[in-house]
Amino acid sequence: MCSTTRLADAPTRRVLAAPTRSYTLRLAHDVTAAASARREARILLASWGLPQEQTDDILLIISELVTNAVEHALPPVALRLRRMGADGGVHIDVSDAGPAASEGARAATGTPAEHGRGRVIIDALSAGHGTRAEAGSVHHWATVGVTA
Q1: Helices 52-72 + 118-125 axis angle, to 10
Q2: Contacts of 104 (CB under 8 A, 6+ apart)
Q3: CA-CA distance, 91 to 112, in Å (whole number)?
Q4: pTM of the entire structure?
Q5: Which CATH number fits domain 28-144: 3.40.50.300, 3.40.50.620, 3.30.565.10, 2.60.120.10?
Q6: What is the layout of strands, in order, in the sheet containing 128-134?
Q7: Taking a C-beta distance cutoff of 8 angstroms, is the pair 132, 139 a contact?
Q8: Rounded Cα distance, 100 and 91, in Å
Q9: Domains of the chain: which residue ranges?
Q10: What is the pLDDT of residues 100-146, one digit of tens each?
C-alpha cells in the first residue's frame, strides 16, 4: 500500500549549501515537528559555528516553542532562525495560526504536572522572549546569546 503526503502538509526543506543569516522551515503539524525542527536547526547552527552549549540551549527552546504550537495552536507552524550580528546571538521565531479550539492529543491526555514548564525553561535559557500577533498568525520568539 502506498502512502502519499499532500504538498501543503509536507515540511519544506532547504539544503544549506553555505552559511546563511536566516532560515525558515515549515513544519508538519504533528508529533514529528519538534524532532524535525531540532534536526534541521542543528545543521544550521553548526554552519554558524556556535558553541555546543549555546546550540543545546537553542535546540531546547525550539523544542518548547514548536511543541506548544503543535499542541495548542492551529497550523501552519513554521520555525525561523536568524543570526543577529557578530556577537553570536540567534533570534528564534515559531509561528502558528493562533489558538486551537481544543488541545492537541498529548496536551489533552497529559497530567497537569507534565505541562507549564516551557516558559520557565525559556526564561532561564534566553536573553528575552515574547509573543506578537500579526494578521493570521501568532509568533512566539526568543533570543539567545545576546543581552536583553
Answers
A1: 150
A2: 70, 71, 72
A3: 30
A4: 0.80
A5: 3.30.565.10
A6: 22-27, 77-84, 89-96, 137-144, 128-134
A7: yes
A8: 25
A9: 28-144
A10: 987 655 544 455 555 567 889 999 999 999 999 999 999 999 999 86
